[in-house]
Design goal:
single chain; alpha/beta; serine acetyltransferase, domain 1; UDP N-Acetylglucosamine Acyltransferase, domain 1; six-stranded mixed sheet; five-stranded parallel sheet; 9 helices; disordered N terminus
Length: 273
């Protein structure tokens, strides 16, 4: 039998105006009419829910449930996290809006919500990060493992990631424990924000606002990637990258400057700047 939307003691956050949720519901209704075979799927995961938080906690719990932790228990934890503050709710809405605005494959909000595992992994990380900050590290690490298994994205729950983030495709993205990612960053598949393998403590990259990280790029060590920088696909970055600079190669070297102040918003991976 299908799970019911979460009915917890915690009341729903009151939103007088929620354009993201309104758009998601409207597009789900339109999709159900256009493809009746998906009507039940759309109803179960979106249309029967009273809020984005309810729908997302239900959907992710179904994706991450296992024989050890069932969907009902996970859904309740996820819902608690997603309704804990208006700030976190705004982050989720900023993330799904970023996907629709930057990814030409996203022709509606329904697509990333239901089908884009980069978005799924990022929202699941946000729940694990919240658990980490609540001193529930064992559960946060368990979720990290399940997220990696389900979505092929490995983000340590202690990493700090801003809002308006796009993880395009998601496959094989790795973000380490002490990494920091600023707002409005976009990254593609097979990106690594990792350590050098010889350091302890604070050992992962610090990525500034509006950065674009191309497919397959590896950024290693406790180095700064300046605001508005562009990291070309396939690059291996071992040293600091100054703000508004384009780097490419193995090892990465400066090859120019991005055409816009925040290349993460434009998704133009060309390096002939």
């Amino acid at each position: 039998m299908a799970l019911q939307p979460p009915l917890l003691n915690k009341p729903l956050l009151k939103r007088e105006n929620d354009p993201v949720w309104a758009r998601l519901r409207r597009e789900a209704e339109e999709t159900a009419k256009a493809e009746p075979l998906l009507a039940g799927y759309l109803h179960d995961n979106i249309l029967r829910h009273p809020s984005l938080e309810s729908a997302l906690s239900y959907f992710l719990a179904g994706k991450l449930a296992s024989s050890y932790l069932g969907a009902v228990s996970l859904r309740d934890v996820f819902y608690e996290c997603l309704t804990v503050s208006d700030d976190l709710s705004e982050v989720v809405r900023s993330d799904i809006s970023a996907v629709v605005e930057r990814d030409p494959a996203a022709r509606s909000m329904v697509q990333p919500f239901l089908h884009f595992k980069g978005f799924h992994a990022l929202q699941s990380y946000r729940i694990a990060h919240w658990l980490w900050l609540q001193d529930r590290q064992p559960l946060a690490l368990y979720l990290q493992n399940r997220i990696s298994e389900a979505f092929d994205v490995d983000i340590h729950p202690a990493a700090r990631i801003g809002k308006g983030i796009l993880i395009d495709h998601g496959t094989s993205v790795v973000i380490g424990e002490t990494a920091v990612v600023g707002d409005d960053v976009s990254m593609l598949h097979e990106v690594t924000l990792g350590g050098t393998g010889k350091e302890a403590g604070d050992r992962h990259p610090k990525v500034g606002k509006g950065v674009l990280i191309g497919a397959g790029a590896k950024i290693l060590g406790n180095i700064k990637i300046g605001e508005g920088a562009k990291i070309a696909a396939g690059s291996v970055v071992l040293n600091e990258v100054l703000p508004h600079t384009t780097v490419a190669g193995v090892p990465a070297k400066v090859v120019g400057k991005p055409k816009t102040p925040e290349p993460g918003l434009q998704m133009d991976q060309a390096v002939d700047d």
